[in-house]
Design brief:
Strand content: under 5%
Order of helices and strands: HHHHHHHHHH
Low-confidence stretches: none
Radius of gyration: 17 Å
Distance between the termini: 33 Å
Number of strands: 0
Structural class: mainly alpha
């Protein structure tokens, strides 16, 4: 009952619902399913890899996220605004599509670092916006709903990216999933475009 009360409360706040749906959409359409496909991406990029390049690919997005955490904590570069969060997700989608289409090992590593940076940045910004706009008496439950959307829906990205990879191939599957997220995000942005920033 509290769960549905929280959802009803959230629907009255366009910033909260849009950021919750944005984070959930990113988890659903792309999530981290492509991390499980890194062995296949590695073999496509460097067929004779002895395991070193695979380790580099796995560490690349983590390095990007670490860099984002350090930079965002040490400098006030980006103000938390819905428009900015959407732009970050748009760029993230393009970077993921670029990684999916890349046949160059070095470019792929760079793209994964950038993707890790952007992923942490938009997630942090979306959560900050939810915290700032949530009514005090509902804040805990609303943040819980956001986290459920942002983290819980990642389990389904194995279907959108993983199962799709078995049918279409990992490159096409990841690229199409990121393109669908881009389209979903554009619709959401149109929904909140009139919010005063």
């Amino acid at each position: 009952d509290d769960f549905f009360d929280t959802i009803r409360s959230v629907t009255r706040h366009r910033t909260i619902i849009s950021m919750t749906l944005l984070a959930g959409g990113a988890s659903l359409f792309v999530g981290n399913a492509h991390h499980a496909q890194m062995p296949a991406f590695t073999l496509d990029l460097l067929p004779n890899d002895d395991g070193i390049f695979y380790a580099i690919l796995l560490a690349a997005s983590g390095l990007g996220a670490l860099s984002a955490g350090i930079i965002l904590e040490s400098r006030n570069l980006l103000q938390a605004k819905p428009h900015t969060a959407f732009i970050l997700v748009f760029i993230w989608c393009v970077v993921i599509i670029g990684f999916a289409a890349s046949s160059n090992a070095y470019l792929s590593v760079v793209l994964l670092v950038v993707a890790g940076f952007l992923e942490l940045t938009y997630n942090s910004m979306a959560q900050t916006l939810v915290q700032l706009h949530a009514p005090i008496d509902m804040r805990g439950r609303i943040i819980g709903l956001f986290n459920m959307s942002a983290l819980g829906l990642k389990s389904f990205s194995g279907i959108t990216v993983g199962v799709g990879g078995a049918v279409l191939g990992i490159h096409w599957s990841l690229g199409i999933s990121a393109a669908l997220l881009l389209a979903f995000s554009i619709v959401l942005m149109i929904y909140v475009i009139q919010i005063t920033e």
